[in-house]
Structures are given as C-alpha cells and as structure tokens.
Amino acid sequence: MSLSTTLTWLVVIGVFLLTIKPLGNYMAKVFTFQPTVLDKPFGWLENLIFRAIGVSRASNMTAKQYAFAFLGTNLLWAVLAYTALRIQNVLPFNPMHVGPINPLLAFNTATSFTTNTNWQAYSGENTMSYFSQFGVLSYLQFVTPAAGGAVGIAVVRALSGRQLGNFFVDVTLVCTRLLLPLAIIVTMILVGQGVPETLAPYLNVHTLAGQTQVVPRGPIASWEAIEHLGQNGGGYTNANSASPLENPSAMSNIVQTISMGLLPVAFFYFFGAMTGRRRLAWTLTGVAGSIFLIMLALTYFPEAAGNPVINALGLATHGNMVGKEVRFGMGGTSIFETSTMAFTTGSVASAHDSFLPLSSLSFFIGMFLNMVFGGKGVGFLNMIMFVIITIFLMGLMVGRTPEFLGKKIETREVTLASVAFLLHPLLILLGTAVAVHSPSGLQGILNPGPHGLSEIIYGFSSAAANNGSAFGGLGAALPFYEVALGVVVVIGRYASIMAMLLIGQSMLRKKTVPESSGTMRTDTVLFGGILFGSIFVLNALTFFPIMALGPIAEQYLMIAHHLF
Amino acid sequence: MKRGTKGDEHMLKSLRPMVGVTVLLWLLVGLGYPMVMTAVSNLTLPWQSQGSPVYVHGRLAGAAHVGQNFEPARGYFWGRPSATVSLTTGKPQPYNAVNSAPSNLGPTNAALIAHIKQRIAYLRRTTPGLKTGEIPASLVESSGSGLDPDVTVSAALLQVPRVALATGLSRTFLTRLVQANTLPPDWGVFGRSRINVLELNIALYKALHG
Q1: Is A73 among the domain residues?
Q2: pLDDT 10s digits, A550-562
Q3: With an 8 Å Cβ cutoff, is B49 touching chain A?
Q4: Which of its termini does chain A have fewer beta carbons within 10 Å around, N or C?
C-alpha cells in the first residue's frame, strides 16, 4: 500500500471520526428545536414556508399520518417529475434542444429518483435538458434524501420516547439545516477543483489533432454536491464521477467521498444523543465501521494485485486499471467505491462491471446489508432492524424476554423487523430469477459466463437497496429492466421504511421496563460482536448460494485463466 | 363502510402542505440553489465555472480536464484507450465527450484480453524499440469515462521515440518536455503524479509552431 493510498484513507476516515460527534449533536439540537447558529440565516425562511403550508414547527403526527404524508408527497414528486421529463422539450433552459423523454424511461427515471435510488437508464449529457437536470433531478436529489432522513428522524424520536414530529417540518429542516448549507460549501470547493457551473451551452472544441469535440457543461458542481451529500448518486453524465467533468482531481474525489459519509455516519451519533445512549451509538458505529473497513480491504487488495490473466501478458505494472481513471490512484478509487456502496450513494468513480470478482463481492456486501451506515436515516433504520432481530435471537438463546432501550421486544416488533429483513432478499432473488428465466432479461447481459449473472444480481440488488450504481454492461435501457427495476425500487424503498415507522410507533407506546442486573446490555463490545455475527450469518445464509454462482465462481475461473 | 367525508377532508387538508412544501422547496433548492451557485461561481471562479476552456492561438483547443483523441497524429502523445462510441452510429468514437462511458468489459471476458493484446501490439508497432515489459497497464486498459485526460509518467516517456520520429524533435528535448509537464500528486500526496496529455501536446505544439 502506497503512502498516497494510506493518507487518502486516513483523511477520509479521520474526517468521519472528527465530525460524527459534533454533527450528531448538532442534528439532535436541530430536530429537538433548540437554538443553533443557523437560526439566523434560515429561521425566517422556514417560518415563511411553515406559515404558507399551515403547519407549526412543534406539531406532531401519528405513524399513520407521517407515513401518509411521506407517501403522498413522494407520489406527487414522482408524478411531477414524470410530467416534466415528458415535456422537457417545451420547458425553458434547453440550450442543446434535446427532445422529450419516452414514457418508459420517464417512469423508470421518475421512480428511481423519487426513491433516492438514482438508477439511470440514460446518459444525462445527451438526454436531459438543463432544466431537467437541475429543476427536476437535482431538486429530487435534495428532497428525496430529506424525506428518507425525515422518517429516520421520526423513528429515532419515537425510540427516544418523544412524539414522532411533523413530516413537512422535518423535510424542510433537513434541506435548510443540513443539505443546503453543506451543498453550498461543497459546490464552491468542486468549482475550485474544476467542475463546471454554468448555464451556457456545450463547448465546441477544435482539437490539435484536427478533430472536433463537443464538451458538455451545465450546472454540474451544484449537482455533484447534492448528489453526494444526499447519498443520491445520479450522475450528471453517463460516466458519473469517473468523468473528469464531474470529478476532475484526487482532491475532488476525496471531497465527494467525504460528502457521502458525513450525514449517514453522524446519524448514528444523532441516535445516541437523542436517546442519551451514546455508548450504544458507538457500539453500532463500531459494527458498521468494521464492516466498512472489511469492504475497503476487499475492494482494494484484489484490484491492486490485478487480473492474473492480464498479469500473464508481462506488462510493466499489475493493478487492474480497466474502467479506472489515472488521477485518483488505486487508493482514492477504492475508498470512493467502498463509500458509494456502504452509504448507498451509487455514484461511481470507475466502472464496477470491470472490477475483479472478489472486489465486486465487496460491492454486493454493501447492497445486501444496506446498513453499513447506509443512506442517512434509512441505513440507520436497517441497522435497528438487525439489532431487534439480534436481541430476539439472544433472548431465545438465554430464555429471557428481549428488551431494547428499556422496552420489551414482542411479537409485533419482531414480525415487522423480519418482514423488513426478508423483503430485501426476496426482491433481489426473485427479480434475478425472473430475469434469468426470460429472454428479454438475458438479452441485457454484456459479459458472458458467471459475470453475466452478476450483472443481473447487481441490477436487482442496486434497485432493492436504492443504491443506483450498476454493472454498467447490463442493458438497463431495455423495457424489461426499465419496468422491473422501476417496480423493485418502489417496493424496496417504501415497504421497509413503513415497517420501521410502525416499529417506532409501537415502541413508543410501550411502558418502560426499569433496567436491572438481569437486563441484556446492548452497549457493550460483546453485544457488538454478537450483532456483527448475526448480521454475517443471516446474510451469508441468504446470499451465499447466489454469490457462489456469480462472483465466487468467476474468481476460480479467472485464477484458472478460463475466459468466456 | 360508506365513503365518509372524513377521509376526503383529511386528503384535502394534507394536500396543502404536500403541494406547498413541494413548490416552496423547489423555489429554494430546485431553482434558487443552482442559480445562486452559478452566479457566485461565475463571479469568483469564472474560468473553472465555464468548463476550464483552453485556447491555442485564439482557438478553443480543449477543456483542460477532458481528454482528447490524439491518435490520428503520430506526432502527438497519446492518451489511454477510450471506449466511447458515437451517439448516432454506435460505432467507436474515442473521447466522445457527449457520451462518456467505460468499456464495461468484465475480467473474464475474452474480448477484454483480446483488446489489451491488440493495444500492446499496436503500441509496439508504432513505437520503435518498445518492449511489452515497459508498458504500464493503464496505457492499454480503457478508462472509466473514456475521457481520462491523464497518463502516468512512464506511459508518456515510452512514447518519446515515436513522437521524436514523427516530429523531428530530439528525444532529449521531448523527455525534458514530459518532465516539465509532469503534475505532482494533489497537495504532494493525494492521487499520483501524472501527465495531462492535452497540456503536454499544447507544449509540444508550441515548440513546433511557436
């Protein structure tokens, strides 16, 4: 491992470690309506919004009302986005005169961006008008992570014994107090690094070699900032953050990586600050953090060692550079990709399809678990789901009533958590099964052999986990995938969020049981270990068979120099 | 159950905040944010905001961060292989910036290995005295965007014999030109030292044409 790689990793992880506590405490202040420094610049604006929509800052909703507000607003966004994409040719800010989006692609894009998946079956630079980019898609990259975060905040409030709060207030505050201030800073840093931010049309270049080249521009920096801060991951261009227009330097790469993780990591501490159980927050952070490190190592080392088939050609360097960019270095690329899979961002700084089988296993782990910090709020809810299942399993083993946060865990919570847990593999495995059994599904494969199966599994995992990255060889623009993945993103997003919201509500209603010496402690290293173990066992049981047919089979074939 | 008015009322009551929050947040983060950021960026960092355009003799010769296809000319340094295709025909069109894309070829795809072998052969054919063992992997493996502006230092140096032959410039001069155009890692440590091929070729162009 080079010095550059080590330092890049240390900077990124160091920033997470330094910001988790202050940012988590700050979030706790904002969402319990205590005064913060941003009251002055944003308070009046929020008051204006709250007055106009007729809700008061401190009002509360029941879980049902909260869910209804969340779903209704999401539906409205999807319909508006669909409409705007269909008629982008007549809307303003279209200097390149691109035409309207066809119905299937508009459906796929509207659902994918509304669910914060940001799966893209199109190439932004030649499909979308400037208005669709910033007025529709970039806008959704603000409000949809805000909506997901709001639900996470509501559940944390419930777990801490507070009322759920008001969805509309929370969405607004996530935008004004977290996303917007950070996005302003990140945009300016990225412009400084060379990311364009303009409304002028594309550049017409006459190259020295006597050719012409059209270079896209647009409000790209402001897009990149929110793409990463909101764990969205929709690229402005097709190559996403591998494109030098979106990610021009090793520094911009580090800034984008940090942007992805800031809020999801801090959300874990936010939970600790809200419930007053900071040790528990650190335990959960430790579990997610150690999986993050495992994923990082699993991404980096195989890539650095390179593809044995290519190494046999006798080139000067090993190290897999297929689909990677020179400027980030192997260390920068691997921490970006680990982060995008852990925080379910889904933007990519290299071509995931061209990663070696073992490295791609790391990507799959990120999407299967969906709680290695995850998207802010949503990832934390998945972690709580695993905590509840683990506590239940522990309770079974020692024959004691399971408790969490001083409340008894009973049938209802365990049922809801199990539904949320099982739904995820169901969507992935069922989706993959349908795809490999239908000619139109198989038609989408680019790479033959086990890698082709991996492409399909990746597509459905990415949709179910609302990640949005792809094994780009898969023909995502085929009608089969536009529809199938569009449906999976919707179920994957809403069903588990609803289940967690109901768990929150049901925990809130329970009486607190005083802790005694007989209470199973959850804020210890021991519990962290058991949690880690049960996450590993549950997911290995679920996903190992299909991984054996995909990446693991390919790994052995690659070692044997078997090509397809 | 009859269709009660209570449900309808509930619907109507929640419609106002739904529409309201959508419209007002759109004004703030959908419209206001990109507009203000565009204005501020163009005032403070106009060159970068406009896409870092580079002019040679008053003509727009490129965007500083976007790679170009120099392969039609042997007298220029070449970048990495690019897998981008034409938007209209779907045929290979390297460094097509409006259709950025990687090859997406997987590690056990025979097409990937064939492509790399072909690249090695092509480089060896065009560059006098080049051995396979001198070629870094990045110069024969296509990039993530198809627009990678950079090559490694060794990837530029190994092209010196070819460029010298085509331009008539001395190898020593070209080697010095490559060294002078080597970019250090960001802040001295992040990323890696590399060469922006466009920048190097502009320096080469100026050495030839003044």
Answers
A1: yes
A2: 999 999 999 999 9
A3: yes
A4: N
Q: Is the pLDDT confidence value at B196 over 50?
A: yes
Report the distance separating Cα A373 and Cα A354, nearest Å.
Answer: 26
In angstroms, the separation between the Cα of residue A250 and the nearest Cα of chain B is 5
Cα Rg, chain A, nearest whole Å: 23
B56 φ, ψ to 5°?
-125, 120
Q: What is the pLDDT of residues A210-237, one digit of tens each?
A: 999 999 999 999 999 999 999 998 899 9
**CA dihedral defined by B144, B146, B147, B148, rounded to 10 degrees?**
50
Domains identified in chain A, total number: 1
Domain assignment of residue A106, given as a range: 19-202+215-278
pLDDT at residue A519, rounded to an integer: 81
Tokens read off for A417: 């958590």
Q: How far is CA A524 from CA A218, A285, A391, A537, B171, in A?
A: 50, 12, 13, 20, 66
Residue B64 and residue B104 in contact, taking contact as beta carbons nearer than 8 Å: no
What's the rounded Cα separation, in Å, for the pair A145 and A260?
A: 12
d(CA A257, CA A333): 10
Q: Does B196 touch chain A (CB under 8 A)?
A: no
Question: pLDDT digit string (tens) for A529-546?
Answer: 999 999 999 999 999 999
- Map out the domains of chain B as residue ranges: 5-47, 64-209
> Is A326 within the bounds of a domain?
no
Picking from B33, B110, B117, the nearest residue to A180 by CB comes out as B33
Q: Which of residues 109-148 of B touch A (CB under 8 A)?
A: 109-110, 112-113, 116-117, 120, 132-138, 140-148
How many angstroms separate the CA of residue A376 from the nearest CA in chain B?
A: 19
For chain A, what percent of residues have pLDDT higher than 90? 85
Question: What 8-state DSSP symbol labels residue B102?
Answer: -
- Among the partner residues B29, B134, B138, nearest to A139 by beta-carbon distance: B29
Cβ-defined contact of A353 to B72 (cutoff 8 Å): no
What is the C-alpha separation between A407 and B86, in angstroms, rounded? 61
Contact (CB, 8 A) for A38 and A181 = yes
Asked if the model's pLDDT at residue B9 lies above 70, the reply is no
Q: Identify whether A490 is part of a domain.
A: no
Residue among A348, A326, A354, A351 at smallest CA distance from A335: A348
Residues 6+ apart with CB under 8 A from A506: A412, A413, A416
Instruction: Answer yes or no: is A535 within a domain.
Output: no
For A187, the closest of B37, B102, B107 (CB atoms) is: B37
Q: Is A86 on the interface with B (CB under 8 A)?
A: no
Q: Which residues of B touch A45 (CB under 8 A)?
A: 28
Residue A95 near chain B (CB below 8 Å): no
**Residue ranges of B 85-104 with Cβ closer than 8 A to chain A:** 87, 95-104
Yes or no, beta carbons of A194 and B25 under 8 Å apart: no
* Residue for token pair 């993050």: A292
Neighbour-count burial of A209, counting CB atoms closer than 10 A to its CB (0-12 exposed, 13-18 middle, 19+ buried) = middle
Measured distance CA(B126)–CA(B72) in Å, rounded: 12
Per residue in A253-305, pLDDT (tens digit) is 999 999 999 999 999 999 999 999 999 999 999 999 999 999 999 999 999 99
Burial class (CB in 10 A: 0-12, 13-18, 19+), A38: middle
**Mean pLDDT of each 10-residue bin along chain A, 564 residues long:** 94 98 97 95 95 93 92 95 94 91 92 87 90 93 95 94 95 97 98 96 94 95 96 92 97 98 96 96 97 98 97 96 96 97 94 97 96 91 94 89 90 92 95 95 95 96 91 89 91 87 90 83 94 96 96 97 96
Do the Cβ atoms of B50 and A563 come within 8 Å? no
From CA A87, how far away is CA A79, in angstroms rounded? 13
pTM of the model: 0.96
